Amino acid sequence: MAPPLIELIRATKRFPSGSGSVHTAVRELSMTVEPGQFVAVVGPTGCGKSTTLSLVSGLQPASAGRVLVHGTEVKSIPDGVGYMFQTDAVMPWRSVLENVASGPRFRGESKADARAKAADWISRVGLAGFEKYYPHQLSGGMRKRVALAQTLVTEPKILLMDEPFSALDVQTRALMQDELLRLWSGSGAAVVFVTHDLDEAIALSDKVVVLTTGPATVKDVFEIPLERPRKVEELRLTEEFRALYSNIWESLRGEVDKARQKGASNVA
Ligand SMILES: Nc1ncnc2c1ncn2[C@@H]1O[C@H](COP(=O)(O)OP(=O)(O)OP(=O)(O)O)[C@@H](O)[C@H]1O
């Protein structure tokens, strides 16, 4: 049997903390992601979600345990990985076209090829006609579309997303979630999507991984057997969705409460 696309096996990440001691952000975390699978990772604030992503991206080496991509130990940034973060990497001094073309250019494609690919993706994310605009001339939602095109233009096989839509208003956010599902559905890419928002996690994913309060480890994994294609706002109103929500929230709530208590005692 082929190995999972992404596999964390009892992965642990420790950081040196200011006082010379060590802070464990992730402890013995095990999870798998299959090719083409959309996995959402939820957990309380500061529990170690971003650190978990950085282990997969190779930006941080694991302190113990194993992190495998395509069955091989991650030692540096693996090929075919795309990222999208809360604050996007759109360059304000470059036009939309130049922003989206920058990835293919960086990978050595000719200017003409990079621009042609960029123009295609700009149109796929619904921004045809805005190629010459600069980021400050766009709305927050449009800038997210640019960021999405910037990420997808390199046709990643793994897409790592860290709360990419959390800064958007509720309606734009729902639009972007639908856009992401539409674009992802034809791509065959696996997605690891970190979010605070359980609604978002369920609406988008095939599987929701609930992490414990820090240090993060896997508390529960829930399959999301909702049909695709999905329209997120309609989906949220269905009985099936609400039942999944209350089930998963039951698991997450205990961790959120623990994190709040910890936070309160840190501040006290
Ligand atoms: N480079 C680093 N050096 C030291 N400590 C770090 C580093 N990166 C993260 N941490 C610590 O690890 C813990 C987990 O952080 P992380 O950002 O992974 O959590 P998170 O769940 O993504 O947070 P949030 O919900 O706020 O986005 C935190 O206590 C954080 O301070």
TrEMBL record:
Name used for this protein in its record: NitT/TauT family transport system ATP-binding protein
PANTHER family, alphabetized: ALIPHATIC SULFONATES IMPORT ATP-BINDING PROTEIN SSUB, TAURINE IMPORT ATP-BINDING PROTEIN-RELATED
Residues of the signal peptide: none
Pfam families linked: ABC_tran
Origin: domain of life: Bacteria
SUPFAM superfamilies per UniProt: P-loop containing nucleoside triphosphate hydrolases
SMART domains the record matches: AAA (SM00382)
GO molecular function terms listed in the Swiss-Prot or TrEMBL record: ATP binding; ATP hydrolysis activity
CDD domains attached to this UniProt entry: ABC_NrtD_SsuB_transporters
Gene source species: Amycolatopsis jiangsuensis
Domain ABC transporter, first and last residues per copy: 6-238
UniProt entry keywords in alphabetical sequence: ATP-binding, Nucleotide-binding, Transport
